[in-house]
Amino acid sequence: MLKVDDINVWYGSIHAIKGISFEVYEGEIVTLIGANGAGKSTTLNTISGLLHSKTGSVTFQGKNLARIPPHKVVEQGLAQVPEGRRVFLQMTVKENLEMGAYTMPAGGVQADLDMVYGLFPRLKERYRQVAGTLSGGEQQMLAMGRALMSHPKLLMLDEPSMGLAPILVEQIFEIIRNLHQHGSTILLVEQNAQAALSIADRGYVLETGKIVTTGTGAELLSSPAIKKAYLGG
Ligand code: ATP
Questions:
Q1: Which residue has the CA at smallest separation from atom 14 of ligand 1?
Q2: Ligand 1 center to residue 42 CA distance, Å?
Q3: In 3D, which of 153, 172, 154 has the Cα closest to residue 162?
């Protein structure tokens, strides 16, 4: 479904991504794990067209995304939930969700709202609440719900567990697992390697802009080197 082939991304003179290649197949959860600054967000932002690679290509369902502007990437079926759950703080829960449906025909929006409310009952209870007054976990649910309103073929999540209490992290990962069971394809970026590898079919480990290891979620979880570097021993 997604093929990232030899991308190199620079911020001015900083070479942040150094020749990364990986693939995501339909129906998989693939995770990119790595420490702060390894290049995880940069990789996602390159796929979604917010940043550009000097080399190589990003292909989504056979189409080269380099030729498609970021706002059109969503129409191709690729939705990103950015790091730090950027929701529209002044808008209500419902208005935020409606914004996520801007690429969809108007007639289906109510059914999609119901689908999101089914996944996140907390959002249904609070549909008239202004997003800026939601808790961090609720904002994360809203950011994910908004992305789902565009019926993405591939959902990219950038550190959905960041800053959340352990119980909410569990809930968010339960929802990701649930989406996966219903056929969603997910590219998950996480610092919480334990949680991410536990639900992922496959994972890639990033270190200073390069992929250093890859394997199934189970293989990486049981690898002594990964345990030492990312799982606290
Ligand atoms: P984190 O887990 O902390 O979010 P990350 O793996 O997502 O980290 P990136 O945000 O992709 O890492 O950053 C990769 C490298 O690029 C880092 O060294 C970072 O300092 C650098 N970088 C990121 N954004 C910029 C920018 N706008 N200008 C200059 N350097 C940047």
A1: 39
A2: 6
A3: 172
Residue 62 DSSP SS3:
coil
Q: What is the rounded distance in angstroms from the CA atom of residue 210 to the CA atom of residue 48?
A: 19
83-131: pLDDT as tens digits:
887 899 999 999 999 999 888 877 889 999 999 999 999 999 999 999 9
Contact criterion met (CB below 8 Å) for 146 and 96: yes
Give the per-residue SS3 of 191-224: CCHHHHHHHCCEEEEEECCEEEEEEEHHHHHHCH
Residue nearest to atom 25 of ligand 1 (CA): 11
Distance 6 CA to ligand 1 centre (A): 18
Distance from Cα 93 to the centre of ligand 1, integer Å: 30
How far does residue 37's CA lie from ligand 1's centre (Å)?
Answer: 5
Which has the closest alpha carbon to 158: 196, 132, 184, 121?
Answer: 196
Q: Between the CA of residue 227 and those of 88, 161, 230, 232, what are the distances in Å?
A: 38, 19, 6, 6
Calpha distance 176→158 (Å, rounded): 12
CATH number of 2-86+152-230: 3.40.50.300
Q: Please state the atom number of ligand 1 nearest to the C-alpha of residue 189.
A: 7
Sheet architecture: strand order including 14-24: 14-24, 2-11, 57-60, 63-64
pTM exceeds 0.90 for this model: yes
Cα separation, 146 vs 140, whole angstroms: 10
User: What are the sequence ranges of the domains in the chain?
Assistant: 2-86+152-230
